[in-house]
């Protein structure tokens, strides 16, 4: 099969998946092999791979026979995005999914996720707990790390305010006349003002002018 002719945009798109490979493997642990095949070079298709010990592969490995079948549309039992079972070279069963990477309608790569089904439930579960070697003083609580999955932008802004300003309001060491400034600086620090309408929303909640909010943001940016 002839390799796909790439341009700079194709290469940039493939490059952008490097962090996706690392992120997926980090959350699912050592039993989850994640890799990207670039179709620019079928003979050395694997350009990014994590947990390659599962299949004994590393970067530079060739494309697989099944990947070729998917690209050709010749597989009668397996399709892009649909999970399927296979086996690693050592005989371990794995559950896999192959996700097409495209530049518009041009197929340029494959994101492949292969999960080792032979891993014990205990070993798999361990991946989701904090490493025992980490100092407990440096560990944040679940509430500290809680991510808010808001359905709309107003709920998102409300959630950020509730999480970040209550401690300032209740802090008796901060003079009342400085509390609004400290709130604005804290919200700037956590990226609140990247949200459209955030200045107007905060000004209304604090009952201050939008000019005051903008003024404090400028001062904070300049001083940092």
Termini, distance in Å? 55 Å
Order of helices and strands: HHEEHEEEHHHHH
Number of helical elements: 8
CATH architecture of the largest domain: 2-Layer Sandwich
The CATH homologous superfamily of the largest domain is named PAS domain
Global mean pLDDT: 86
User: Please, how many domains?
Assistant: 2
What structural category characterises the helix and strand content? alpha+beta
Please give the largest β-sheet. Answer: 5 strands, antiparallel
User: How is the largest sheet built, in terms of strand order?
Assistant: 2-1-5-4-3
- Shape annotation: elongated
Structure description:
Pfam families: HTH_22, PAS_6. Residues 161-218 form the Transcriptional regulator DauR-like HTH domain. This is Transcriptional regulator. This protein is of the alpha+beta class. The chain has 2 domains: 8-126, PAS domain (Beta-Lactamase, 2-Layer Sandwich); 136-223, no CATH class. 40% of the residues lie in helices and 17% in strands. It is built from 8 helices and 5 strands; from the N terminus they run ααββαβββααααα. It has helices at residues 8-16, 18-28, 65-72, 121-126, 153-170, 176-189, 198-206, 210-223; strands at 32-38, 46-50, 84-87, 93-103, 106-116. It has a 5-stranded antiparallel beta sheet. Helix 5 (153-170) crosses helix 6. The chain is elongated, with a radius of gyration of 25 Å. Mean pLDDT is 86; it is low at 132-142.
């Amino acid at each position: 099969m002839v390799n796909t002719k790439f341009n700079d945009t194709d290469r940039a798109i493939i490059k952008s998946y490097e962090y996706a490979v690392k992120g997926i493997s980090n959350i699912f642990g050592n039993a989850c092999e994640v890799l990207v095949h670039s179709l620019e070079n079928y003979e050395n298709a694997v350009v990014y791979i994590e947990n390659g010990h599962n299949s004994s592969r590393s970067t530079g490995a060739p494309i697989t026979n099944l990947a070729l079948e998917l690209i050709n549309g010749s597989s009668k039992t397996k399709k892009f995005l649909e999970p399927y079972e296979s086996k690693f070279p050592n005989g371990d069963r794995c559950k896999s999914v192959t996700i097409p990477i495209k530049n518009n309608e041009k197929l340029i790569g494959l994101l492949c996720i292969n999960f080792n089904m032979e891993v014990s439930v205990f070993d798999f579960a361990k991946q989701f707990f904090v490493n025992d070697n980490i100092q407990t003083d440096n560990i944040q609580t679940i509430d500290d790390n809680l991510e808010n999955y808001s359905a709309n932008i107003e709920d998102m802004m409300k959630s950020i305010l509730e999480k970040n300003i209550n401690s300032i309001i209740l802090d008796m060491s901060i003079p009342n006349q400085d509390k609004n400034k400290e709130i604005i600086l804290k919200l700037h620090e956590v990226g609140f003002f990247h949200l459209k309408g955030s200045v107007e929303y905060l000004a209304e909640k604090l009952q201050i002018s939008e000019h005051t909010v903008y003024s404090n943001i400028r001062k904070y940016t300049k001083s940092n």
